[in-house]
Write a structure and sequence with these properties.
alpha+beta, Immunoglobulin-like, three-stranded antiparallel sheet, 2 helices, about 25% strand, binds copper (II) ion, DUF4399 domain-containing protein
Length: about 200
């Protein structure tokens, strides 16, 4: 009885395969159609994206993991997470940053040991006076932005810089804006003209 059942199922399954052959052949065709649909969808999405301000407009072939370099444990330095020297960008562009070996705290939290907040120096050398607080830009400054304070403990920002080459450097400072001289390397980015 068992053998008979097996024969039956074998026969049945063979018959099924033959019956389904046209269907099996149809699968690649369906897949092809689905892929074509996918391409059409992607194209439609791209069109939609044109209408928005691209806030992550880093024009670079390097991936995020390639930008990230391992640091020895305990080393204190600040670094840009998503941009690197030589990148071309369009304003406004997103800049993400981080610090190792220190905590990030808002200015309002006051004096907390081994914490501070980020700054970006734009087109400026490192300050010469190691005890002077980092200056502030005038309000609504566009052409001559030099000192960005992230006193709320921010770790990313949107920079809106005029077209041209700009140098950027992170400098970490305490709640009085006095630098710890924990900084990043200076990098240069080229801000491209806005498309018309
Ligand atoms: Cu500050």
């Amino acid at each position: 009885m068992v053998a008979n059942f097996r024969q039956f199922t074998l026969k049945k399954s063979k018959a099924l395969v033959v019956d389904r052959l046209p269907a099996l052949l149809a699968v690649p065709l369906l897949l092809g159609a689905a892929l074509a649909c996918g391409h059409a969808l992607a194209a439609a999405k791209d069109k939609g994206a044109d209408k928005h301000v691209d806030t992550d407009s880093i024009i670079s072939t390097i991936s995020a993991s390639e930008r990230t370099r391992p640091f020895p444990v305990g080393e204190k330095l600040a670094y840009f997470v998503n941009i690197k020297d030589g990148d071309q960008v369009r304003s406004p562009f997103r800049v993400a940053f981080a610090v190792t070996g220190m905590g990030v705290a808002p200015v309002a939290a006051g004096d907390i040991h081994d914490t501070g907040h980020h700054h970006i120096l734009i087109d400026m050398p490192m300050p010469a006076d190691i005890k002077a607080p980092i200056p502030f830009d005038k309000q609504n400054e566009y052409q001559h932005q030099h000192y960005k304070h992230f006193g709320n403990g921010e770790t990313e920002t949107l920079l809106d810089l005029p077209a041209g080459k700009h140098t950027l450097r992170l400098l970490f400072a305490d709640h009085n804006h006095v630098p710890y001289y924990i900084s990043s390397k200076e990098i240069s980015v080229v801000v491209l003209d806005k498309p018309h």
